[in-house]
From TrEMBL:
Amidohydrolase-related domain ranges (all copies): 36-355
Name used for this protein in its record: N-acetylglucosamine-6-phosphate deacetylase
Gene Ontology molecular functions: N-acetylglucosamine-6-phosphate deacetylase activity
Keyword Metal-binding attributed: yes
Lineage, highest ranks first: Bacteria, Pseudomonadati, Pseudomonadota, Betaproteobacteria, Burkholderiales
EC code(s) of this entry: 3.5.1.25
Homology family: Belongs to the metallo-dependent hydrolases superfamily. NagA family.
One Pfam family cited in the UniProt record for this chain: Amidohydro_1
Highest taxon of source: Bacteria
Keywords: Carbohydrate metabolism, Hydrolase, Metal-binding
Length: 362
């Protein structure tokens, strides 16, 4: 049982939550703890943490799941990079077991975000150059190894537009990302079944009043899009514009192996990246993922002027709903006991994943 000010699925109440692996009861009553209780964070774009990269395969997924749980993330998607097919398969083979069996002390791995290799070579950002066109046979083969919940592609490449409804029929949320496409390409992709946009503003054609680009398509038409709210990848003004335009804009970390680590050199797939303070960059100086954690994302959203409930929804409810996870991202009887307890400065003091108390000290 935890006690405090609770953000339930119907609004704020003061009282306590009783739970085992699922929430059993929320009872209104006195709470003198000064604690705030929110749904655990749901991060749909995670490459690594604690010096470990998802592309390493093996037990990398378990290390990453444990690392992010300490910051209030209770479920996540292991996210790949553009790479040789053999390297992608190695990563998925490692994730498959973690998806089936949640590691003790770790967040629930809900599946895979396949961020590469179906991208436009002109908008790779920090992605390696091993892009290939998508084929239904290849996606089905990868999907059979580990469930792909989200897939990023550039819809203007080859026959990708025709692939979108086929992938959507598999239950995959197709997102536009790393794209040099036009506004018209974005609108056509949305009409074909695209569900969202990958790290909005980054890795896509920007907005111009004569050529609105992919950003314009998102701002004008998207219901969902992910954004990296580290205040490095996107300016505060651009975040405000997106928050006003896209009803269910949600935050992701795009966290790399450098997350939770000291400044230094780390792996991002086959690339070498460098952490310096709150940034991760290639040797060229370009941003290359982040060291953001979801609790910091919450504090950043609040610093922009969002009320706490709205900020919470953008890190829990909306990404859970995007995946169709109706028992995550919310606090209500019957939902998974994915809970983050915060102090007055919005730092986690307790985290529960499916009822398991997470050790925040390791």
């Amino acid at each position: 049982m935890v006690n405090g000010r609770i953000l339930t699925s119907t609004g704020w109440v003061t009282g306590s939550i009783q739970f085992s692996d699922r929430i059993q009861q929320i009872t209104e009553g006195p709470a003198d703890s000064g604690l705030t209780i929110l749904p655990g964070f749901v991060d749909l774009h995670v490459h690594g943490a604690s010096g470990t990269d998802i592309m390493e395969g093996g037990d990398a997924g378990a290390v990453v799941a444990r690392s992010h749980a300490r910051y209030g993330t209770t479920s996540l998607l292991g996210t790949t990079l553009t790479a040789k097919e053999t390297d992608i398969r190695r990563a998925l083979a490692g994730l498959a077991g973690v998806i089936v069996h949640r590691p003790q002390g770790g967040a629930r791995m809900l599946g895979v975000h396949l961020e590469g290799p179906f991208l436009n070579h002109r908008r790779l950002g920090a992605q390696p150059p091993d892009v290939i066109p998508a084929t239904e046979a290849l996606v089905r083969s990868l999907h059979a190894m580990a469930p792909i919940r989200v897939l990023t592609m550039a819809p203007e490449v080859d026959h990708h537009l025709d692939m979108i409804p086929k992938l959507a029929a598999l239950g995959i949320r197709v997102q536009i990302g790393h794209s040099a496409g036009t506004y018209e390409d974005g609108v056509a992709a949305l009409q074909a079944g695209v569900a969202g946009f990958t790290h909005l503003f980054n890795g896509m054609t920007g907005f111009n009043h004569y050529e609105p680009g992919m950003v314009g398509a998102a701002l004008a038409h998207a219901e969902y899009a992910e954004v990296i709210p580290d205040l490095q990848h996107v300016s505060k003004g651009a975040l405000h514009a997106a928050l006003r335009a896209i009803p269910r804009l949600y935050g992701v970390t795009d966290a790399t192996a450098a997350t939770g680590m000291p400044d230094g050199e780390y792996a991002l797939g086959t690339q070498r990246v460098y952490k310096c303070g709150d940034c991760v960059r290639l040797a060229t100086g370009s941003l290359a993922g982040s060291v953001l954690t979801m609790d910091q994302a919450l504090r950043n959203f609040v610093s922009l002027g969002l009320d706490l409930a709205d900020a919470s929804h953008r890190l829990s409810l909306y990404p859970a709903d995007y995946l169709g996870e109706s028992r995550r991202g919310r606090l209500e009887p019957g939902a998974w006991a994915d809970i983050v307890v915060l102090d007055e400065s919005l730092h986690p003091v307790a985290v529960f994943v499916e009822g398991e108390a997470i050790d925040l000290t390791n």
